[in-house]
Structure formats: structure tokens, C-alpha cells
Amino acid sequence: MIMKLTKIWFADNRIYGLTDQGNTVWQSLLWYKRLLNATEEQRNDFKMDDEGIHWYALDEDVSFESFGYENPEPQGISLVFLSHPELNASAVARRVSISQNLMTQYINGTKKPSKERERMILDEIKAIGHELASIAQ
Description:
3-stranded antiparallel beta sheet
């Protein structure tokens, strides 16, 4: 059975919901950039139906089902890329010789890299940082 939310609110870069069973659930707004960057007025302009919440002006949808996902907060590679949108995921994927599609799945949390692959990607991001830091002014 999919949960239904009766109320939502925002705090601490999270979206919270009160379920029809009286439980509080939440997700990080890092998963939803449009909501993360929206004004309070924009966030409060939503509609709920039987399946989820819709912000038509922001072109954003959050399903009730997503509040039951395993990781409400991005972790590992997802956290790095979602917290640092200035990183070019496609370029990092090329540097570590994996497909852009696979990297996107890692970032979105639909696939999880092995510990070895995650370390390889994070090490490459650190190498990019060192290269940038070594640029003479």
C-alpha cells in the first residue's frame, strides 16, 4: 500500500510530510533542485492528488511513494554531485571510463556503485580538485 500525505512542510533543506497513518516522513531537497532553490511562496503553491505533490509553476513532482525509498538523504557519489552542481558528471565519467548513463544512475541513486568504483570516482574528483588548485594565479 502506498502511503498518502495529509500535510507537507519544509525545514532544514528537507521536505517533510505527515502520513495518513500519523507518521512523519522526509526527503532531502538535494533530490529536488527546483524545490531547493524555490522561494517559500513557490514551495507553498502546490497541489496534492492520490499519487503525490505537484508544483506546476516549478515543473516539479514528488510522489508519495518516494518518501518510502531507502535513502531519503543522498549519500556517497550522489551527495557529492548533488551538493556541487558545478561538477560536470559527464566529464568525470569520461575520466574514469564509465558511461555517462551509468554515472547518472549513480548520482540519482537508481544504481549503487561498488565500493571500489565509488572510491575510483571520488579519487578522480579529488585529482581534479588538485589540478585546479595547482593553477598559478
